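Appendix B, example 12.
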Amino acid sequence: MGFALSNMQLTSAAFSNDGRIPGKHTGEGEDVSPALSWSGEPEGTQSFAVVCHDPDAPLIGAQGTYGFVHWALYNIPADVHSLPEGVNAYASGRTDFGKTGYGGPMPPPGHGTHRYYFWILALNAQLDLPEGLTLWQLLAKVEPHVIGMNRLVGVYSRG
């Protein structure tokens, strides 16, 4: 299946879709991941993955990738439908900060407002993937198994 939006819904108690991400969840604040919850996954879902990507970051990788990866969390069991604030469970991928775990928004000063896409991916398999995958490695492994997905977009800018 190609990547296309489904009927799944992804929400956060911290911000609404297209709303401003609170400072607590940014690199200028406590830098903790926001609480997320989802529903409406397709029948046959065996696991989930969550990612956060900033397509507005002025970066192009050596392989032609673009933007900045802030979070990749995967190996989330199918019976889980929410993540608490500051979650420290499941497998964490490597961000563009060069570490695993969540790294909040922190666009360059004066670079304007950036959009942060939080994605939920429903997979038809339990893949038991290793820690430390980049977003692009993760997507290459999960793409054949994606049966549903959707996003929550938050915005942030530095003063």
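The longest helix spans residues 135-142. The beta strands are 9-11, 19-20, 36-39, 47-54, 68-77, 82-83, 91-92, 114-123, 146-156.
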